[in-house]
């Protein structure tokens, strides 16, 4: 008799470090559901997951869902490159059209596909897509989301049962409770309706731990409390989907990157302005630029306005060379365009600065280049080779080996691994099936 393939649930816990489960650090925290379902009864990567370049939320999530590096899928930062603010802080909400992803390909291969608040999901070709997108953080966002969701009207239908859809502006424990409800609404009200005929693939997302770490610190009691609450909701997801599918389900929990404690902020644009390469108006806003540095946490992309301007190129190269040679400047690496592309990100860059651990890069154009008055207490987006930038991978369910440690893997391995479990290959993927 023909057997239905298992449904797949993919959940991202932003910034979850392997240390919290396997740690080399003394981390006092209990995460019983992750431990019970995914370590004792699942497969995991105790040595962590090498993230992509840069290890920043939106590039990482598109890599998770496509199995490709940012230079290939085209999303190399959270926000659009925007020195003068003409895009008004717009993020890369839309999924890439350059490569295949799990939402569209699972749908083409016999699955019903869905997503709830997963970064870079706007415009995804799935059956039930409630994307992460925001405009002003008010209820107007729900109206806009209703227009871009698949199908149209999905958000208002969801809100009639669970309350306000979690805005991308809202990264609290309470907003994560809404993200949990969004995911369960899709599973219980939409996806399991066809589970006797078609399996489903669905992605979900929890953001609060990352935000708590930014505000309070990586190992703060607030960050740990957020992670404990996520673990509780994760346990409910696992128990419920096993019940709804008669155990014909696989749940995969991942993160996008790790997180590092900040000690300093550095602002390359301050030096560019001091060298007459940036011009600001009376309010301090950039009005013209020959070169601009845009941050991605502990990394920044440096672009020339005119790539043929050799005088400016050489001037910038000299500034960055001086930073690299100054042991107190917080610069670990300076990459040129070819080196950046080889690492997998920022194809339009002229240079990329990678900071030393603990030196977050900011976009400031005035003030001091270096300050100990940090904007955030923790950050990601540092070198993908730093131990503290490692992401996490756990998987359990139908056909998954119990208590199996696969050691280490790469972020781009996640999508081809899940595709293989669903019986197809992602033709664009640069990773491999780790199972």
Detailed description of the structure:
The strands form six sheets. This protein has an eight-stranded mixed sheet with strand order 5-4-6-1-7-19-2-20, sandwiched between helices. Strands 12-13-15-14 form a four-stranded antiparallel sheet. The protein has a three-stranded mixed sheet with strand order 16-9-17, with no helix packed on it. It contains 14 helices and 21 strands. The chain has helices at 19-22, 32-40, 57-66, 70-73, 102-108, 140-148, 154-162, 173-191, 208-216, 221-244, 268-274, 310-325, 337-343, 414-421; strands at 7-13, 42-44, 48-50, 112-116, 128-130, 200-206, 249-254, 260-261, 264-266, 278-280, 286-289, 291-295, 299-304, 331-336, 351-355, 359-361, 370-371, 378-379, 393-397, 404-405, 408-410. The protein folds into two domains: 7-260 and 386-421, 3-Layer(aba) Sandwich (Alkaline Phosphatase, subunit A), CATH 3.40.720.10; 263-375, 2-Layer Sandwich (Gyrase A, domain 2). 54% of the residues are buried. β10 (278-280) and β11 form a beta hairpin. The protein is an alpha/beta fold and 435 residues long. It is globular and about 65 Å long. Helices cover 33% and strands 20% of the residues.
């Amino acid at each position: 008799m023909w057997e239905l393939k298992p449904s797949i649930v993919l959940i991202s816990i932003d910034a979850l470090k392997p240390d919290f489960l396997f740690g080399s650090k003394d981390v006092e925290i209990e995460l019983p559901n992750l431990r019970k379902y995914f370590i004792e009864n699942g497969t995991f990567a105790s040595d962590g997951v090498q993230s992509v370049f840069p290890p920043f939320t939106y590039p990482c999530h598109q890599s998770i869902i496509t199995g490709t590096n940012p230079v290939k899928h085209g999303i190399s930062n959270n926000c659009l490159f925007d020195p003068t603010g003409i895009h008004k802080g717009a993020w890369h909400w839309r999924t890439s059209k350059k490569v295949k992803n799990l939402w569209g390909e699972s749908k083409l291969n016999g699955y019903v596909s869905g997503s709830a608040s997963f970064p870079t999901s706007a415009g995804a070709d799935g059956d039930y897509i409630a994307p992460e997108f925001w405009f002003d953080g008010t209820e107007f966002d729900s109206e806009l989301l209703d227009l871009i969701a698949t199908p149209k009207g999905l958000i208002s239908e969801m809100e009639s049962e669970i309350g306000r859809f979690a805005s991308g502006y809202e990264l609290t424990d309470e907003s994560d409770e809404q993200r949990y409800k969004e995911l369960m609404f899709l599973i219980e009200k939409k996806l399991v309706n066809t589970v006797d005929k078609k399996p489903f693939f669905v992605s979900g997302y929890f953001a609060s731990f990352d935000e708590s770490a930014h505000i309070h610190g990586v190992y703060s009691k607030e960050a740990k409390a957020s992670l404990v609450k996520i673990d509780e909701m994760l346990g409910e997801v696992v128990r419920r989907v096993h019940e709804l599918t008669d155990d014909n389900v696989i749940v995969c929990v991942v993160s996008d990157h790790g997180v590092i404690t900040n000690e300093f902020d550095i602002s390359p644009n301050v030096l560019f302005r001091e060298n007459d390469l940036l011009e600001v108006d009376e309010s301090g806003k950039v009005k013209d630029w020959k070169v601009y540095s845009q941050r991605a946490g502990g990394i920044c992309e440096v672009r020339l306005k005119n790539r043929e301007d050799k005088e400016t190129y050489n001037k910038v190269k000299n500034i960055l060379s001086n930073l690299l040679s100054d042991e107190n400047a917080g610069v670990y690496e300076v990459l040129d365009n070819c080196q950046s592309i080889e690492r997998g990100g920022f194809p339009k860059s002229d240079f990329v600065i990678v900071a030393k651990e603990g030196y977050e890069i900011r976009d400031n154009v005035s003030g001091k280049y270096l300050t100990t008055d940090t904007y955030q207490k923790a950050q990601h987006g540092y070198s993908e080779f730093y131990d503290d930038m490692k992401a996490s991978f756990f998987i359990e369910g139908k056909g998954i080996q119990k208590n199996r440690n696969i050691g280490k893997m790469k972020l781009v391995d996640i999508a081809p691994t899940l595709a293989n479990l669903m019986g197809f290959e992602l033709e664009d993927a640069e990773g491999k099936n780790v199972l």
